[in-house]
Each structure stands twice: as C-alpha cells, then as structure tokens.
Amino acid sequence: MMIISNNKHINDETLGAIEQSLSFIFPKTYRAFLIEHNGGETDKKIFLFKKEPANGSVLDRLFGVIPNNYLNLLLYIRNYKKRIPDNCIPIGADPGSNLILLSVKGSDRGKIYFWDHEMEADTDQGEIPDYSNLTLIADSFDEFINNLKREDEIDI
Q1: Where are the alpha helices (DSSP H) in the chain?
Q2: Alpha carbon 71 to chain centroid distance?
Q3: Both ends of the chain: CA-CA distance in Å?
Q4: pLDDT value of residue 23
Q5: String of b and e for 57-93 (b: at least 16 CB within 10 Å)?
Q6: Are the CB atoms for 15 and 24 separated by under 8 Å?
Q7: How high is the pLDDT of residue 21?
Q8: pLDDT value at position 152?
Q9: φ, ψ dihedrals at 129, nearest 5°
Q10: What is the pLDDT of residue 69?
Q11: Quick one: pLDDT at residue 151?
C-alpha cells in the first residue's frame, strides 16, 4: 500500500498535545502513520470485513489533523462523539459516508471497525451508542493498512 496524497506533516509535540486534550494515547502504529502522513489517500482502497470476507467497502480517505478543513480528524471526533462508542474515534470514511473507526481504549484498543450509518440505532438523549452497527475490519491499524487491496486483487 502506498499513500498517493497526504497532508501537511504534524509533529510529535502537536500530536502529544492533542492526545492530552482527548485523554487517550493513539495506538503506536496509528500515531506513527499520523506523524509520517497525517492522513491522505491510498493507492489500494478496498477492504474486507474480518469475519465476513465476502463483504467490505472502499476507503475514500484517511483523516488527518488539518485545521480549517472538512477532513480534519479532530472535527470528526467532535461531530461523532455522541453517535459512536465512546472508546472509538473516526479515522476515515468510505464514499457513502460510513466511517472507519479506531478503538483507542478498552479491551479492544487498536481494533478497526466499519461504522454503517444506515444501521445506526436511534438513541435517546444520554444513551451510549453500542456496537450494533459496527463490523470488525482488522485487529490493528497495521493489519487494516496491509490488507487494503486494489480492485484487480479481489476475487469476485
């Protein structure tokens, strides 16, 4: 997999300040990805679900820390805070506005999920979103990135 476009680099100090403000530390490989690429587009875009390899979606873009930009990771974290499980953050999206989530704390820390907005449960005020519309993609960010495929690499 190759990043075909990325964003202005972010340094370790800025990322550390962001982690402190969010009260968690990004998993090591995702943190390294942010420092090296700060989000972007990949040449391989297709991902399959871990337990349903006949199904999957297409990665549109990975978010980065990009002030004053609609693809800003921090904007997505803020905007989806009450809609996704509180231990997850959105790190990317597919073309249909479904999200790629990264668990940043808890027993599943580091796992990558597909968040299907069409299957989102209606939650009452104060109710915590659950995992009912999440599908496991990978056990780690590295596994997610390494398993991305081009269309010609998929057996249909």
Answers
A1: 12-22, 28-36, 73-80, 141-147
A2: 12
A3: 21
A4: 93
A5: bebbbbbbbbeeeebbbbbbbeebeeebbebbbbbbb
A6: no
A7: 94
A8: 86
A9: -60, 150
A10: 85
A11: 86
Residue type for position 10: I
10 Å CB burial of residue 25 (0-12, 13-18, 19+) is: middle
CA 108 – CA 2 distance, rounded (Å): 27
Percentages of the chain per state (helix, strand, coil), in multiples of 5: 25, 25, 50
**Rounded Cα distance, 113 and 90, in Å:** 9
d(CA 24, CA 4): 29
Residue 128 is predicted with a pLDDT of 67
* pLDDT, averaged in runs of 10, over the chain (156 residues): 72 94 94 92 94 92 89 93 92 96 96 90 64 93 95 78
Report the alpha-carbon distance of residue 101 to residue 90 in Å, rounded.
Answer: 4
Q: Write out the H or E segment, with its range, that includes residue 132.
A: none
- What local confidence, expressed as pLDDT, does residue 8 receive? 82
In angstroms, what CA-CA distances link 54 with 38, 116, 127?
A: 30, 17, 33
